[in-house]
Write a structure and sequence with these properties.
The protein is of the alpha/beta class. It is about 40% helix and about 15% strand. The protein has helices at about 40-55, 65-70, 85-95, 145-155, 175-190, 205-215, 240-250, 270-290, 320-335, 350-365, 385-405, 415-420, 430-440, 460-475, 480-500, and strands at about 30, 60, 75, 80-85, 100-105, 110-115, 120-125, 130, 140, 160-165, 190-195, 225-230, 255, 260, 295-300, 305, 315, 340, 370-375, 380, 385, 405-410. The radius of gyration is 23 Å and the shape is globular. It starts with about 30 loop residues before the first strand and ends with a helix.
Amino acid sequence: MVLHVLNNMVHSRDTGPSRGREARKGSSVATAKITYLSATERAELVEQTFTVLEDVGVTFNAAEALDLVAEAGAIIDRGTSSARLPRELVKRCLALAPGQVLLAARDPRNDVLVGGGAPLSVTSGGTATYMLDDATGERRAGAADDLRTVMRLFDALPEIDYVWPTISARDLDPLTANLEIEAISLRSCAKHVQDEVRSIEYVAPLLDMLEAVAGAPMSERPVFSAINCTIAPLSHDAEMTPASIALARAGVPIVIMPMPLMGTTAPLSAAGVTVITLAEIASAVVLFQLAAPGCPLIAAPEPALADLRSGLYLSAPPEVAFAALACIDVLKSWGLPVQGGSFGGDAKAADFQDGLEGAFHGLLDSLCGADTLVGLGELDGAQAVSLTAIVLHADATGMLKKALRDTPFDSASMLIDDIRAVGPGGHYLACRSTRERARDAWQPAVLRRGSFESHRGTTLVEDALARAHHLLATHEVLPMAADVERHIDSVIAGFAAAHA
């Protein structure tokens, strides 16, 4: 595969909207971006993806899904619950998906737009098993109180735009956990929440809760988005699929997230896993657009690599980046909003490896065109959550967002009058432009600047953990209305009683 990466970083010149900001008339705006695939490579990936969908097909595992695609012209095998999808059907459904998606929030000031030229947004990782103690290095099973703590910290950090319940609360009743986790997240954080809805029986009570929180139907104020994880290779989950169809029909945005593993559930090649990932996303787009034409979708390719020595999931090797970039390139050509990867790599602590992996994947994915990034706060292949990692990832996210801002390169921004006034050998400290522009310079919260002596005696991890504790001690989450709180409690209690 030919790489078209760093040497293709370009400056856009008078091209109108660029990554969410309107270029000033008569000005020049520089935007950092990369092109990964050649036109020939992209066309070949699309061709082979459509061929797999037509010739190999996809297993839907749900009668409702099979009925939908059958009525649209797919070739069905009821015995295997599979369908072969004609490429014209796929193309027609791709064209129905909107290019921009609203992720509304309990506090409307936290609303996020994904795609369509909106600025880069970032969300946390989700459903980790363990909470990592940054001071001791020990980990333990996550609990509801951990989820409350993590959600409050996310609420306090402005770099995080929306949230995925990052830690699994293992002490909750499994019967009601899917509802209680969303309730805890919405109460502890006033930002948009995305999560998995694992089966159809949770849809009605969840929508009841969400519409009480939003004060409107999900089609108007979608304060929740549902992650629909396909099952590699080329399958859809029997329980999650009907739930996602029902949510899509109610106006809930669906985040399509394949997670194929090179070497086990996908071929051990970047190109092969890309075809599997794209085929699963395209088949889900077909399904949801047939179920609810025009419904909001976000494509979230999450290819990974299986460590064939241990069987572990690896999310950060370079080979994974190659596949992710190829997926993003194709998905953007299809006009879909795309959620790429960033932090949440394979490191076991908030250390140099963690920072390297997160910056590597986050920068490449966003430069290639990802509209939003997922993974903040997680470690060890998405198995663990760390307060220190959350704070450090947020700081790094601020740097990343600053790097992706459009930068004017016109005569006004060159400050030629100041250069004339100061002349050779002078300084710019007294210039008005220096005072004004200093406010726009990015400043980290914990990443280290200043003198060597000012940072002696503590480590960066200790500073980050101290900031996490300070924010948790001082930050106030926007309270939820008392009648909404009571309604949520009654919905969960009613569900528990009905299913006891």
